[in-house]
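note to self: dont lose this again. the chain is below, predicted strucutre after it. 385 aa total, dont forget to put it in the shared folder this time
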Amino acid sequence: SHQSSAARCSCRGISKEYPKSHRSMAEQELRQRKPAAAEADKPAAPGAAVKQPPKRLEFSREKEAERWTKLISSASESAPPAAVPYLKMMAPVLSAVLVGLHMALPLILSAAAAVDKFFQVVPAQLLVAVFGALICFFGGMYPATIAAMEAWQQAGGRRAYENARDLYIEFKRVMHKSAEDDLKDEDGDGIADVDQISGKELFMRKAHIALTTCDPDKLNGAIQGIYTGWVGVIAVLKIQFAKTIALGSAIGDFLYSPALRVATPVLVHLIPEDYHRWIPSLVLYVCKSIALSIAWYVQRVISAFHSAIRGGLLCSRGVLNFMNSRGIIDFNDTESYLDEIVGWSLAAAGFYFQFMMGFSMPFPFNLLLWPFGVAEWYIVWTVSS
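---
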């Protein structure tokens, strides 16, 4: 039949066995289609309106900061009325910090993974030697941070690392979904939908994405594991630095009375009369801060001396034991004095280095190691509070 032959034509092309009349009809149809295709390929006439393709929205740090500012401003409305203006004022700063953290998190996780890989590959004796060298030359500069790392390792550092990794994976999933949502333009006007809604609507929209994307069991387990480990670290540090805290408190109490007598006549002329009742508290806080700074400086000197000896011996024994395991030298740390000679020499060099640096990281290394400085300040503040 004609219909079956037409079906064969559409599937296999026009064959020699196909009837002439039907071939001529197909050729005529193709001739009619060619002018339309040629018209479509022709350039547009001058002055004619050209149909533009829809705009493709891209990620922008500025737009991301604006959305975070809108979210923080909307969330601050549920805060106490007295704090709302300050929260809205701080919203741009907080949004910039959050965007920076979002961009830095992959680098931090990559660095942590590289350190973990390094620990797995390097022999145990060399790890001991590297750790000993670090605390020998830098133990007095970051005493609280090094103590926290040791306590963290004892409190289950490997498990805490896995919890932090799970938390980052969940955060990454949420941010990926949020980034896809930021690029949605359902009305096709070239402006993202999230930039056309109010702060409250944006907050509810992002909260819905977070709640529907996260795994609640994994999220709860990760937060609980990290918090438990951190509480254990703080408990250990409070016991370890109890003498430092007591010394700071004693120095603060000693400074308070004379400082109040000297500062009050000056502050009454500098502070409005309505705020004069805050003068004793202000003087007390300043005295406590100065006292804690003195106490922690004394602790840095003590930690530098102790860590130099401990780190020097760890480094020397680690290197010598590694060389003995490779057959380079014949060494037995229970019979030989070589580890003590090398260790005490390193200890003297480490303490002298820290003393010459004023028990603080020199420039420009303090800029490179600023995360450790921030961690040191936060741990000291947390332990002393």
